[in-house]
Amino acid sequence: MKLLHVDASILGAHSVSRAVSAAIVHRLEAETPGVEIIRRDLTAAPLAHLSGGHLAAAAPDADVSAETRAENAEAARALDEFLQADVVVIGAPMYNFSIPSQLKAWIDRVLVAGRTFRYDENGRVVGLAGDKRVIVAVSRGGFYGADTPMAAFEHVETYLKAVFAFIGVPDVEFVVAEGVMAGPGLREKALDAALQDAGRLKAA
C-alpha cells in the first residue's frame, strides 16, 4: 500500500494540523505492515500557483522558460504521487475560513482533466480517482461545526468534500481539532480529542 502524506500548515512544529496528520499516518502505518509513505510538505517545498504560462507550455510550439518547465515537471510529480497513492492523508488548517493557498496550488495540479476526471458524452463529470481513501486533518481556531453560529463560514471541509467528490472520492474522512485559539486550554483539549480520534482509525 502507498500512502501520500500532504501537509500545508505554515506553523511547522507548532501546527495542530501537522500533529494530527502525523498521528493519522502513524496509526495507519502501525495497522498496515509494509506501507510505503510518500511525503509532500507544501510549505517547505511549495508548488507554483497555476498560471496561464504553465498552461500555455503544453502547446507544441510554446516558448517555455526553464523555470516554467521545472515548475510543470514538479507539478507532474505531485500528480503522479496522488495517482499512485492508495491512501491520501492531508493536513489542512483553516486560514481565513478556507484552505491555505499552498494546498489550493496542489489541488490545481491534481484536478486534471483526463487524469483524475473526465466528461462523458452527456457532459457529466466522471471521477477517475475513486480507488483512493482520503483522510483530512483539519484544525480551526474557532468553532465552525454544523451546530454553531459560524457554520456558514466553514469552507475547508465543505470545499474538500466537493473537490474529492468531483474526482470520484465521495466519502472523505475528517479528523477535526476545533477551537484551538478560542480560549485558554482549548488548544490542548482540541488537539487531545483529535489525536484520540486519529488513534481509532482503522486500516481499512
Rg value: 18 Å
Low-pLDDT sequence parts: none
Q: Please, how many helices?
A: 6
- State the CATH class: Alpha Beta
Biggest sheet strand order reads 2-1-3-6-7
Q: How many strands, what sense, and barrel or not for the largest sheet?
A: 5 strands, parallel
Question: How would you characterize the overall build of this protein?
Answer:
The protein is an alpha/beta fold. The protein has a single domain, classed as Rossmann fold, CATH 3.40.50.360. Helices cover 36% and strands 19% of the residues. It contains six helices and seven strands. The strands form two sheets. It has a five-stranded parallel beta sheet with strand order 2-1-3-6-7, sandwiched between helices. It has a two-stranded antiparallel ribbon with strand order 4-5. Strand 6, helix 5 and strand 7 form a beta-alpha-beta unit. The longest helix has 19 residues. The radius of gyration is 18 Å and the shape is globular. The N and C termini lie close together (11 Å).
Describe this protein with a few key phrases.
two-stranded antiparallel ribbon, 5-stranded parallel beta sheet, alpha/beta, 6 helices, 204 residues, 19% strand
SSE layout and pairing:
Blueprint: E1 2-7, H1 16-31, E2 36-41, H2 52-56, H3 66-84, E3 87-93, H4 101-110, E4 117-119, E5 125-127, E6 133-140, H5 157-166, E7 173-178, H6 186-199
Parallel strand pairs: 1-2, 1-3, 3-6, 6-7
Antiparallel strand pairs: 4-5
Helix pairs in contact: 1-6
Compact description:
The chain is of the alpha/beta class. The chain has helices spanning 16-31, 52-56, 66-84, 101-110, 157-166, 186-199; strands at residues 2-7, 36-41, 87-93, 117-119, 125-127, 133-140, 173-178. The strands form two sheets. Strands 2-1-3-6-7 form a five-stranded parallel beta sheet, with helices on both faces. The chain has a two-stranded antiparallel ribbon with strand order 4-5.
